[in-house]
Design brief:
Elements (H helix, E strand, L loop, with lengths): L4 H6 L5 E3 L8 H9 L4 E4 L5 H14 L4 E6 L5 H10 L4 E5 L7 H6 L3 E6 L2 H10 L3 E5 L5 E2 L7 H14 L7 E4 L5 H10 L3 E4 L1 H4 L8 H9 L5 E4 L6 E4 L2 H11 L4 H8 L3 H7 L23 H19 L1
Parallel strand pairs: 1-9, 2-3, 3-4, 4-5, 5-6, 6-8, 8-9
Antiparallel strand pairs: 7-11, 10-11
Bound molecules: NADPH dihydro-nicotinamide-adenine-dinucleotide phosphate.
NADPH dihydro-nicotinamide-adenine-dinucleotide phosphate binds next to strand 7 and helix 13.
Length: 318
């Protein structure tokens, strides 16, 4: 892969970021990705404050390369997470699921590089105005929490690039996410106007991911159409179609209200599915690219393969 504004911003070999996924993105995964030339992220959304501190310290011990932390802005104990990040000297923070104006200046005043995740042009401009250093634009194909607009990555990247250019932010690095699980997809994202990519699902199934083995196996077995974006009345989320998803379908069929859907979802479903491996009752958050994942590999092997495929794709275009 070629050097871009994204690899320059993060001081990484490749313009490639691993998604900071709840229940998957532990210090082990983040450090393995960083050691292999990408930017590893710890997913703090599923970590209690003391757990995040431990993961940051373990990651610092496991790599001397840059890494970051993803913080969902709706996290209940967000001040504690942010204070740990600053105290422990983390240099890069990705924020998601919330208003970028809330924490960006606070983090930047403390010397931290800030990136915000969006799924439409309006929020891309809002993030740019809040002073972020880069934007992740995440399309409809992505796993887990997602935008309501259902804009695919193929449409989203050029739209956001154009909106940023028109808003006077043409130099702001743009990272494409959603549907990226091959070197060809990376080449496509760069061709569309992105400066790098963020990859989740491939790394959720990596050896170093803290996801349960049952969940990894379910990812390998997933084929075309195995996932769906659902629960839009609450927070839209892309899930593997399992018995829990089926129960959601049945709730829709009987005209369930948002309150009934929230009750059905309950608490801790994602942990049950992705971390404890309950494939029936749990929520299994994964992207459409699950259909392309056929083996559990190390983060290094994944990145080497992506790099090779990227060069093959560029070669084909020549
Ligand atoms: P739930 O409300 O269903 O459950 C909360 C889960 O988070 C529990 O499993 C709990 O672990 C764990 N947890 C970690 N820290 C805390 C805390 N301080 N207070 C309460 N619970 C905590 O939420 P979800 O599992 O659906 O999501 C967890 C978090 O991840 C949320 O903040 C959510 O918004 C975020 N998220 C963000 C995404 C994104 O940014 N794109 C994608 C998906 C989720 P335990 O069971 O051990 O108590």
């Amino acid at each position: 892969m070629k050097a871009t504004a994204v690899s320059a911003l993060f001081q990484t070999q490749f313009p490639l970021v691993q998604g900071g996924m709840i229940w998957c993105s532990s210090w082990r995964l983040a450090s393995a990705v960083s050691n292999a030339g990408g930017l590893g992220l710890i997913g703090s959304g599923s970590m209690y404050p003391e757990v995040l501190r431990e993961h940051i310290q373990q990651c610092q011990a496991a790599t001397d390369k840059p890494f970051g932390v993803n913080v969902p802005l709706l996290y209940p104990n967000i001040e504690e997470h942010m204070n740990s990040i600053v105290e422990l000297g983390v240099k890069i923070v990705f924020t998601s699921a919330g208003n970028p104006a809330t924490w960006t200046s606070w983090l930047k005043e403390r010397g931290i590089t800030v990136v915000h995740v969006v799924s439409n042009s309006k929020f891309a401009l809002k993030a740019a105005q809040a002073g972020v250093d880069a934007i992740v634009a995440e399309g409809f194909e992505a796993g887990g929490h997602n935008g309501r607009e259902e804009t695919t990555t193929l449409c989203l990247i050029p739209q956001i690039r154009e909106a940023l250019n028109a808003g006077g932010y043409s130099d702001l690095p743009l990272i494409a996410a959603g549907g990226v699980a091959s070197g060809g997809a990376i080449a496509a994202c760069l061709a569309l106007g992105a400066d790098g990519v963020q990859i989740g699902s491939l790394f959720a199934a990596a050896e170093e991911s803290s996801a349960h083995e049952n969940f990894k196996k379910a990812i390998l077995e997933a084929g075309d159409g195995a996932t769906q974006l659902t629960l839009k009345e609450l927070t839209p989320v892309r899930l593997l179609k399992n018995p829990f998803w089926q129960a959601v379908q049945e709730a829709y069929a009987r005209g369930a209200s948002p309150e009934e859907l929230a009750e059905l979802l309950g608490r801790g479903r994602a942990k049950k599915g992705m971390f404890e491996g309950d494939l029936n009752e749990g929520e299994l958050e994964i992207g459409q690219v699950a259909a392309q994942i056929s083996a559990v590999k190390s983060a290094r092997a994944i990145i080497e393969q992506l790099n090779q495929e990227y060069h093959q794709a560029i070669g084909r275009l020549k």
